[in-house]
Each structure stands twice: as structure tokens, then as C-alpha cells.
């Protein structure tokens, strides 16, 4: 009781101190510390001025997680004076606001009982039916009963599979380099995440085969076979077959992330792993790059036994993906807008990728190489030896340009000379200028070696 009175008093005092914010910063900090203390059962706020050390109480699995890179990328989302090649953001020009406004108005007036309500954890039946039909027509395989669920974007699937299947110390193989959100999802469950290199044909299945023969026993292998993040590279058809053979031989689950699959510039990528081997593949899909990330919509397709586990795991994370977003997705897709927009998006991103290649050719210092993507959002740049792209990102910011340094895309210490450039959201007319600035940063660094 006394504790509650103290909390109320201190909260009021803190509110008052907020009014005189300038000059009262210290008072406010003390007040917050006092609130913390009294809520923790220490009823006398005068007992200590010391702020609590919340980090000391962090769970072991969280302590070494990092995450600063993703926070930094998202923090740049709104900055207007920096040319930013950092985040894998779709261009807002691809967001169909007019169509969406109509659909939203209709759903809220006519279908509020579904669209504004909780949904089944595996997703609204009609939405799953739409997604299943789409997979059938695009990938040549339609998920059977229980083989498909709706997720909250692509990352939700990685989180759910990690939560359901990984114990501390379990081995997970990823491509080196790979999407850092996936590394974090697996490490969040204390997995031993190992990288296997990629080349122009995707994951080096020969290196993986050697490691398996030497005793490596992963529970999960995570791959982004199409226009990979961060390299833009695609796994060839023979490598896909080899990978599936290894999964069947050694009994691991392939988690296939198809975030960029539909965004090919010319040729479509080879058949999806899930469509070839639904017995050993869980496909993680997202509508973030082809629809809008703001709705946080995705899917997981795989063996029914696995999907049922992910559904249970989702029940105590977000319980269900937002029903309004699900219904918006369904209406938008069934109306034919999705596939029409994807055609326009492919042309937009293909044009940007070509502008990037021209700019890199014009402005990169000698000895720098880069990938040429056939789709997706990314180009992977390798600078000459001796450069440290983490250290240089401050110099880049000073020149009002941003990229993601290579290191966080690896599980170990690689990536010092590499840079990921996302061209998806940089206006055409800024690409040359932005690359010129990065070229200047690299050149200055090389001169100083
Ligand atoms: C390969 C890959 N998978 C998944 C995601 C996350 O997708 P979502 O925003 O839908 O969670 C991203 C986002 O950049 C990605 O690059």
C-alpha cells in the first residue's frame, strides 16, 4: 500500500518535472530511479540515488546478441539528408496507397467482425487459401492440409522455428555471409551458428559435405537461395539438388528464405527447394518486399508436423498475425494487384541495379569488386585488403552517405573489407552521387594505408 502511494507521488512529481524539462533533467532521472526502486519493493525513494543496472540482469542468451546494426539501419529510415544504401527497404513508390485505402475502408465498414478481431493462430482460412493458391501457381506446389501458416513477416518464421527446435549448443548452418536477422534469431536460442561460404552458384555444398563428413550435425540449415541478402547471388539448380541430398542423408531441416524470390529482373530463379523437397524443407516467405512491410505479413510452408509446432510457438509470442493486415493482403492479392505491382517493382529495381553497376564502375577504387544481382535489393562490394569498413562507416556518415559494413553478416570475424549496398530505396538521381561519396571514402582510406 505504502509502495503504491509512493509510486503515485513520485509519478506526479515526475510529471511536474517533465513540464520544466530543460534544466530539470537530473531531477527526472532521479525520479525514474525512485519509481524503479519503489516498484521493486524499496518503499523509501530517498534510500539510493543509484540507477539500477538492468544489464546485470539480462538473460545469458541475450547478453551477446548484439542487434545494434539492425537498430542503426532502422534509425536511418527517416533521415532525409543522408543518401542511404543501408536498409533493405522497398521503395514506397511500390506501395499501392490508393487501392489500399479503398480496401481498408471496405473491410472496416463491411468485415470488421473478422478484420478487427483476433484470428486463428495459423491465419484466417481464406487468407491461407489465397497464399496456398499463389504458391501453387508460382512454385508449382500447393501446400496440403496443415502445411501452411500465416506469419508476421519473414523473421517470425525464423524465430518460431528457433524457439521450437533449438536447444542451447545445437548447430545451425548458415551461408557466410547471410541475413543478420536470421543469425540473431538462431543465436537468441543459444545455437552454435556456423557459416559455410557462398560463391557465384550459392552455398558451397562441397564445403558443407566435407564438414558433415567430418562430424558436423546441424539441426537446421538456413539458406536464402534467390538473390540473397547480402550478396544478391542465387543458388544454381545443381547446388539445390546437392543440398537436398545432404539434408536427406544427414537428417537436417532446410529453412529456405524466399524473401526476394519474386523480384527477379529477367530469368526467374531455379525451382524452390520446398517445391522440390517438401519433406525436408520449411519455406519462410514474406510479403514485406512485394507488398508492404508495414503489414508484417509472411508465410511458413513445410511438413505439417513442423507447422503444427510453429503454431504452438506462435501462440505465446504474438498469438496471431494482425487480422486487418491478413485481410488487406487477401483482398489486394485476389484483386490481381499483387502480381501487377510485382511486374512494376521488378522494372524499378532492375533499373536501380543497373544504375548502381554503372556508378560502381565509374567511382570505385582499383581492386574493388562487386556482385551483379539478377534480382532483389543488394550488391555486395569487396574493397581491397587493409580497408576496415566498420571503421569507415563514420567517415561515410560525415560525407552524408550510409552503407552496412560486411562484418555483421558473418558468424565469425570475416567481412572487414566488405560492404552491403541496398539500392531498393535510393532515388535514381542520387545513386551516382552516393556511390561517388563511398568511392571517395575508400580512396582516402587506401591512401592512408
Ligand atoms: C532474407 C530476408 N529474410 C527475411 C527478412 C525479414 O522480412 P520481414 O520484414 O518480413 O520480417 C529480410 C528483411 O530484410 C530479409 O532480407
Number of strands: 14
Helical fraction equals 40-55%
Q: What is the count of helical runs?
A: 17
Estimate the strand proportion. 5-15%
Alpha carbon gap, first and last residue: 66 Å
> Strands of the biggest beta sheet: in what spatial order?
2-9-8-7-6-3-4-5
* Molecular shape: globular
Structural class: alpha/beta
Bound molecules: pyridoxal-5'-phosphate
**Uncertain segments:** 1-43
Structural summary, described in words:
- There is one protein chain.
- The chain is α/β, with parallel strands linked by helices and 449 residues long.
- It has 17 helices and 14 strands.
- The protein has helices at 2-19, 25-39, 60-63, 68-75, 97-110, 112-115, 125-139, 153-165, 180-187, 205-213, 237-250, 273-276, 304-315, 323-334, 337-363, 389-398, 428-447; strands at residues 83-84, 148-151, 171-176, 192-199, 202-203, 220-223, 253-257, 281-286, 298-301, 369-370, 378-382, 401-402, 404-405, 418-422.
- The strands form 3 sheets. The protein has an 8-stranded mixed β-sheet with strand order 2-9-8-7-6-3-4-5, sandwiched between helices. It has a 4-stranded antiparallel β-sheet with strand order 10-11-14-13. It has a two-stranded parallel ribbon with strand order 1-12.
- Helix 1 (2-19) runs antiparallel to helix 2 (25-39), helix 8 (153-165) crosses helix 13 and helix 15 packs parallel to helix 17 (428-447).
- Residues 1-43 have low confidence and may be disordered.
- Residues 88, 153-155, 179, 181, 224, 229, 257, 259, 286, 288, 293, 298 line the site of pyridoxal-5'-phosphate.
- Pyridoxal-5'-phosphate binds at residues 88, 153-155, 179, 181, 224, 229, 257, 259, 286, 288, 293, 298.
Amino acid at each position: 500500500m505504502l509502495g503504491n502511494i509512493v509510486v503515485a507521488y513520485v509519478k506526479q512529481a515526475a510529471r511536474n518535472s517533465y513540464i520544466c524539462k530543460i534544466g530539470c533533467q537530473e531531477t527526472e532521472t532521479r525520479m525514474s530511479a525512485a519509481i524503479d526502486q519503489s516498484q521493486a519493493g524499496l518503499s523509501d525513494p530517498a534510500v539510493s540515488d543509484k540507477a539500477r543496472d538492468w544489464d546485470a540482469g539480462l538473460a545469458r542468451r541475450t547478453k551477446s546478441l548484439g542487434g545494434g546494426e539492425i537498430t542503426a539501419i532502422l534509425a536511418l529510415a527517416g533521415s532525409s539528408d543522408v543518401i542511404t544504401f543501408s536498409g533493405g527497404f522497398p521503395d514506397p513508390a511500390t506501395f499501392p496507397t490508393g487501392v489500399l485505402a479503398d480496401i481498408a475502408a471496405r473491410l472496416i465498414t463491411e468485415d470488421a467482425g473478422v478484420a478487427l478481431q483476433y484470428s486463428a493462430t495459423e491465419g484466417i482460412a481464406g487468407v491461407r487459401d489465397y497464399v496456398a493458391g499463389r504458391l501453387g501457381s508460382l512454385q508449382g506446389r500447393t501446400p496440403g492440409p496443415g502445411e501452411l501458416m500465416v506469419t508476421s513477416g519473414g523473421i517470425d518464421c525464423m524465430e518460431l522455428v528457433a524457439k521450437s527446435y533449438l536447444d542451447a549448443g545445437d548447430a545451425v548452418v548458415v551461408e557466410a555471409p547471410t541475413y543478420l536477422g536470421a543469425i540473431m534469431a538462431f543465436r537468441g536460442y543459444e545455437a552454435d551458428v556456423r557459416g559455410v561460404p557462398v560463391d557465384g552458384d550459392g552455398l558451397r555444398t562441397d564445403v558443407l559435405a566435407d564438414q558433415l563428413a567430418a562430424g558436423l550435425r546441424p539441426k537446421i540449415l538456413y539458406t536464402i537461395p534467390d538473390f540473397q541478402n547480402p550478396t544478391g547471388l542465387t543458388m544454381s539448380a545443381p547446388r539445390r539438388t546437392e543440398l537436398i541430398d545432404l539434408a536427406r542423408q544427414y537428417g537436417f531441416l532446410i529453412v529456405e528464405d524466399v524473401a526476394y524470390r519474386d523480384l527477379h529482373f529477367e530469368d526467374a530463379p531455379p525451382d524452390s527447394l520446398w517445391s522440390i523437397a517438401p519433406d525436408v524443407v520449411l519455406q519462410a516467405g514474406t510479403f514485406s518486399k512485394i507488398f508492404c512491410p508495414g503489414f508484417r505479413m509472411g508465410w511458413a510452408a513445410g511438413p505439417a508436423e513442423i507447422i503444427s509446432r510453429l503454431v504452438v510457438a506462435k501462440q505465446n509470442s504474438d498469438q496471431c498475425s494482425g487480422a486487418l493486415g491478413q485481410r488487406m493482403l487477401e483482398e489486394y492479392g485476389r484483386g490481381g494487384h499483387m502480381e501487377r505491382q510485382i511486374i512494376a517493382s521488378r522494372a524499378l529495381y532492375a533499373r536501380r541495379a543497373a544504375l548502381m553497376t554503372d556508378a560502381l564502375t565509374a567511382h570505385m577504387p582499383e581492386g574493388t569488386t562487386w556482385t551483379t544481382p539478377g534480382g532483389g535489393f543488394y550488391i555486395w562490394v569487396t574493397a581491397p585488403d587493409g580497408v576496415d569498413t566498420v571503421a569507415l562507416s563514420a567517415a561515410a556518415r560525415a560525407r552524408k552517405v550510409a552503407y552496412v559494413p560486411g562484418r555483421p553478416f558473418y558468424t565469425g570475424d570475416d567481412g572487414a573489407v566488405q560492404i552491403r549496398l541496398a539500392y531498393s530505396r535510393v532515388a535514381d538521381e542520387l545513386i551516382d552521387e552516393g556511390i561517388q561519396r563511398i568511392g571517395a571514402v575508400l580512396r582516402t582510406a587506401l591512401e592512408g594505408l
